[in-house]
Structure formats: C-alpha cells, structure tokens
User: What shape does this take?
Amino acid sequence: MRMRGLRALLVAVLCAGLSLGPAAAGRQERRPSAPPSFYRPVVTDGMTFPVARTNWFSVIEFENDWHAPRMRVVDGAWRLVGLHEGLDIIAEEGTPILSMTAGTVERLGWTFYSGTRIGIRGQDGRYYFYAHLSGVAPGIGVGTAVRPGTVLGLVGNTGYGPPGHRDEFPPHLHLGIQEGATWINPYPTVRRLYAASARSTARGERRLARLASQGRGRMFDRVASRLYADLEEYR
Ligand SMILES: [Zn+2]
Assistant: This one.
C-alpha cells in the first residue's frame, strides 16, 4: 500500500469511526461493527512487535532467516557476498513500522544497502535497526525519544543504490538488533512478540463479537477504542 492508499484508508477509518457513536435518539439500535483499523500495539515486558497489525487483512510474514546466505551476480556468476544479520518481516508497502522498545533515535537517513533507515538506542542498551523504509514518520529525528509502539516510518523497499533508489526487492522491514558490537538473531524475540499480539487482539475481537451479538453498542465502542490504535499516531 502506498502513502496515498494509507491516507485513503485512514479517511475511510475516520468516517466509519464516526458511525460508531451511540445511535441518535429515536433511531433504531443497530448491531455495532468495527471499521477497518490498526490494532493498538500490544506491549509485553516493555517490547512490541515492530509492524502495525490490522483487523481486516494483514500480509505479515517472517521466518527465521538469520545468517541466510546472500548471493549476488558478480562477474556473471552467483557468489556468496554475505550472511543475513537480521530478520526480514514481509508486509505491505506503507504499513506503519513501530519502535519495539523505549529508546532514542541515534541514526536516521540513507545508506547504500539499507536505503532509508532508523537506528534506535534502546533503554536496554541494545541498538535496534530498521531498514528499507519508504518514509519516516513526522516528528522522528536524531535525538527523538520513542516508546514501544511509536510509529517510526512506513514499510518500503528502498536501498541497494543512491538516495531514493528502490524496487530491487519486495517491500519488507529489515530488523537488526545489536548487542555491543555483535548482531544477534531477532527471530526468537519477534516471534514471541507476534504471538502475544495475535493472542491479545484475538481476545479483543472475541469480546467485541460478544458485545455486538448482545447489541451493547456503548460498551462495544469503549472496548473498540482500547483495542484499535489512536489514528493520530498513524498520520
Ligand atoms: Zn534483511
């Protein structure tokens, strides 16, 4: 999804959100339903899954690709040029990228392989590295303090070229975590955070479904406002 698609979606969400309010006096009570929305980040032990999830359709995929061989054609032959020191999370272009942890933005800008990237120094001392962004969120700059769930930017496929270069590979978030001078495998942590997020939002959806079937519109709105993200954060 490109930025324009994201904005259109947000407008749709906002408009639909307006219809969530209590039914006007004299109008017939209707069965409440939630508009397409991003879930509020689920924070577990001070950390959250780094890509925004939605209640309508979510192409988010990752597998343990730590130290997967990276090949390139050099002088007409495929050669091993390195090992993958991170985790690739496949998501639709324009999906918000969330800070996994509390910390401070330490690096921001373009590098040849990473494209637009943001580096966060976590309060835990680790360095969290987010690469290939299609855009940086407003208000994010070197020195900005972030918390788990702060929107850093949008998923893209920038990099492998001069500033602005893109489309060398499908959109995804490359996530790196460095401890001291050593990159570590993000997969076990990210997998745990994804599972926690999916469990929590599934619980929320079940609760909403119950309230909807009972026609409890006001309680539905209250639970929905806790389950779904504050749209201001996604502009
Ligand atoms: Zn990667």
User: Anything to note?
Assistant: Residues 88 and 174 are 5 Å apart (CA to CA).
